[in-house]
Amino acid sequence: MAETALINNIEAPARPAGWRGIAADWSSDQRAFKNVSWGKAMMWIFLLSDTFIFSCFLLSYMTTRMTTTVPWPNPSEVFALTIGDKKIPLILIAIMTFILISSSGTMAMAVNFGYRRDRAKTAALMLATAAFGATFVGMQAFEWTKLIREGVRPWGNPWGAEQFGSSFFMITGFHGTHVTIGVIFLIAIARKVWRGDFDVGRRGFFTSRKGHYEIVEITGLYWHFVDLVWVFIFALFYLW
Amino acid sequence: MTNVAVHLEAQQPSLQADVHDALASGTTHTKGQQHPIKLYLVVWGWLFVLSTCSYLVDYFGLHGHLRWSLILLFMVLKAGLIVAVFMHMAWERLALAYAILLPPVLVLVFVAIMAFEADYTHLLRVLFFAPTA
Asked: Which ipTM did the prediction report?
């Protein structure tokens, strides 16, 4: 607030007119997020839009599940695994949940070490996060294979409402894609951290800009979001 | 902020101090988000506990409103911890927090609309598409 008041006190320089004026007015000192860099603000805004995408998936899942007159397959049994002789309900999904939460923990610590400019620890923790993520995707591939072998298709399954398959493949498939992209993102940034790009001010090959350790936090935001979405999928799709 | 600071330096040095004070009270972090590692470990632990709890809801086969309310409770607590601590939203300025957190709340309106609509569709299907005896 203090800044906004102050800007008005400063004598405004002559502003350009026409098309230049439009560009200048939209790109001038107007700034809503005072102490957040544009990179971080844009990641948050992207995550907001992604929230709406996943909201729509979960909403359509809710609608199909509420409207079908055929009983919904019981996820507790569908996702049970037989270990030894015991059939344990939902165990694979529980393990996947713990793996993803652990990856969030290592990511949070990577951000911390990044700001301390501890290159080795930051890169190691980011790679650990990526490894957890890759494990998660691997287990998801296993889960998909198992269900497809048991006859789950987007248009039907042996246990009940036909929409089960399409909801399942759509929601977990989109989430798994996000995790995969996150793993690639993590490995790319971990490599830059390891090489010391942010200490020597090396320019990125794509943007030719110098990076900062803040990119670790921005990558972290994306990664925590992936974990966050899983919290909702776990609760609403697997447990409900 | 940098642009503002530059202008101020040239023209109104006394006010620049005010800006710095104002920003300092609004938790600025020029060196980025720095919090003790212990905090992350505690949150990590809590996320494990809450996930176990929500798994146990299924393991013990709880049913009905108890099941649904527990699932939602654990879900909201986990989501809150992740956003507030891991994503550092607790330390951001309110302008950012509201800009990001309020729009998803409006999705609840959409949920209400679709639940209402789904009830109606279900009723129609029961009335007109049920197998006749």
From this structure: 0.84
